[in-house]
Every structure is written in structure tokens, then in C-alpha cells.
Amino acid sequence: MVVSCDEMWTYRGARRGDKREEWWIWTAVVAEADGSRWVDFEVGDRSEVPFLRLYARLPEAGLYRSDAYAVYLGWFPPDRHVVGKGGAVNWNEGLHSVWRGQLRRLMRRTKGYTKSIEMLVYSLALVCWRRWLKSNINAR
Q1: Model pLDDT, residue 53
Q2: How far is residue 10's CA from residue 15's CA, in Å, rounded to a whole number?
Q3: In angstroms, what is the C-alpha Rg of the chain?
Q4: Which of 25, 31, 93, 131 is most buried, judged by most C-beta within 10 A?
């Protein structure tokens, strides 16, 4: 089993100015031995706290992949942690690209933005669910 983790940036409240709050979406893509993959995510700031909420839900893996962000270096076992943007971490980048393409609240340079963190979480989950449903229907 391989777990790849990455984070993406977004904002809440306003596009610019004092009302703008920066938020991070922490993603984990888990690749099972049978080739299937599943996604988990957590929304919060860029500190260790939201990552640890996500990390607590992840299964024990034979290999962890991430970028060199210090939070990952402190929690993934060094002998099973591969640092780099290639390989399995690209699964996360692909997921981020899908989210940015399908959710106006995540698109760059748009008038859309997130007003509620709860709605951001529900929107992300809905896109994941729709992609899973579509891929399972097409597989039949």
C-alpha cells in the first residue's frame, strides 16, 4: 500500500483584503495493492494540526510519498518515506487539478470564493463521490 500526501491552498471570506482567510486542503491518496485508490482530505491551516487529523485516519502503509514540507518529515517513518513531486504524489496533483477545474470556489482568478468551510468540505466530497460513481459505472 502506498500513501501519497500533499496540500493545496485556497482562501475564504473574500478574494482580497482584510476579510480574506487562507486555508489549506490536505489530501491523501491511498493506493491499495489491488490497484484501487481512495482519497481522504482535511481542511485547515498549514500547521501540523490538520495534517495530524488526516494522518490519524490513514492506514499503515509500506511506502509514504510527499513533498519536502517539514510536517511530513516529522511524521512519516524515514525508512518508508520518499520525498519528491513525481510518482505517486502526482495523484494528489491530479486530484487538485480536478477540484480546481470543477469547483469555482477553488479556481484561480475568479470572482467565486468560499464563504463557509463546511460548504468547501461538502463540495470536495461531492466531486470525489461523483468521480467514483462515474468510474464504477463506466467499469461495468
Answers
A1: 95
A2: 10
A3: 16
A4: 25
| Dihedral sign for Cα atoms in the order 36, 118, 85, 15 | positive
> Pairing between strand 63-66 and 37-44?
unpaired
Decide if 7 contacts 46 (C-beta within 8 A): yes
Per DSSP, the chain holds a count of helices (H) and strands (E) of: 4, 5
**pTM of the entire structure?**
0.78
**Per residue in 1-47, pLDDT tens?**
999 999 988 876 666 678 777 889 899 999 999 988 888 999 999 89
Residues 56 and 89: their CA atoms lie apart, in Å, by 19
Say how far apart CA 111 and CA 113 lie, in whole Å: 7
Continuous segment of H or E residues that includes residue 66: strand 63-66
Do residues 43 and 117 touch, judged by C-beta distance below 8 A?
Answer: yes
